[in-house]
Design a protein that fits this description.
It is built from ten helices and four strands. It has a four-stranded antiparallel sheet. The radius of gyration is 25 Å and the shape is elongated.
Length: 318
């Protein structure tokens, strides 16, 4: 289904505005990160306890009880049955020498005196383990970016591959930065955890997919429209893939908004990061990846992009 039909939008004419907008968002987000990031238990260490009640309980009620016990940013998840809950807390919130799990169980037992609370699991995630997870997460992201650069460089010209990777890095940085901004403003209770990391890696894959589709169409149109300049060729290709892009993005956004609203606090990090990444990944394929190629050819190679592309390509190879 095509909602837009044949559009003739001059996308690349607005490339400078979006370039400066992206810089501003990155500076604000990454600048705030310098003042500290609230890490999740996965990365800074903490305690994890699985409990089972006799009767079904509400997640919100258990979260209030755990918060009153001194664990303000506890992660509460219901799993399996409505009587089973996984509670994860940071050791930073603990005072005294009592184990965090013991404090939690004691608080729950006082709140539910008629319930039999069974401890299914009681684990401790040390700071060293959290540090290793954090380093491996960063390594995984770097390897993913390098692998994508190699793939795109082989599939297209190297400059296109570089533009795609710059757009990918842009999307990851914007998504990360927006998590920090919303975290600092306390609009959402967000922590940098494995869910956010999974979302960042997913954003990288989604972003490169949209960029590849546009670059593929540019390559096809080189043969079909030999008399067009590169900028006109790019605008044509973006317009031809616009309906497909909007259909895909709107579908994903509807799902993510549903998760963000109804999925509970435990899924806020993943859903919010994905939502930002999907939106930025859509416009970065146009205003970052394609615009970078235009900037490089105009500024670095000093090529005239107003001439027909085939003549320009022949001249650059001569």
């Amino acid at each position: 289904m095509e909602f837009f039909g044949k559009t003739k939008i001059d996308f690349l004419n607005k490339r400078k505005f979006f370039f400066f907008l992206s810089i501003a968002l990155n500076v604000v987000g990454l600048g705030l990160a310098a003042f500290g990031i609230r890490m999740g238990i996965d990365f800074k260490g903490g305690s994890e306890v699985a409990v089972s009640f006799t009767n079904p309980q509400q997640t919100a009620v258990i979260r209030d009880i755990v918060a009153k016990a001194g664990f303000q940013n506890a992660e509460i998840k219901s799993y399996g049955k409505p009587t089973d809950f996984l509670i994860r807390v940071s050791d930073v919130a603990v005072t005294g020498h009592e184990k965090p799990s013991a404090t939690i169980i004691s608080s729950l037992q006082k709140a539910f005196p008629n319930e039999k609370i069974t401890v299914q699991k009681d684990d401790l995630i040390g700071p060293k383990v959290g540090s290793e997870l954090r380093n491996k997460a960063l390594l995984a992201l770097i390897i993913a970016v390098i692998a994508i650069l190699i793939y795109i460089a082989f599939r297209f010209e190297f400059i296109y591959g570089l533009g795609a990777v710059i757009a990918l890095i842009h999307d990851v940085c914007i998504s990360f930065g927006m998590v920090i901004i919303f975290q600092k403003l306390e609009i959402l209770n967000l922590e940098f955890n494995m869910g956010v990391l999974a979302a960042l890696l997913t954003v990288a894959g989604f972003s490169i997919n949209d960029t590849v589709i546009i670059f593929d169409r540019i390559r096809e149109n080189r043969v079909r429209h030999k008399g067009l300049s590169l900028i006109s060729l790019m605008n044509l290709s973006i317009n031809e893939t616009l309906s497909r892009t909007i259909n895909t993005v709107v579908t994903v956004i509807l799902v993510l908004v549903t998760i963000l609203v109804l999925g509970g606090e435990a899924l806020h990090g993943f859903a919010f990061t994905m939502l930002v990444g999907i939106i930025t990944g859509t416009y970065s394929s146009i205003y970052i990846a394609s615009a970078f190629v235009v900037w490089f050819l105009e500024t670095v190679r000093k090529e005239d992009l107003e001439t027909p592309y085939q003549k320009e390509l022949a001249a650059s190879r001569a």
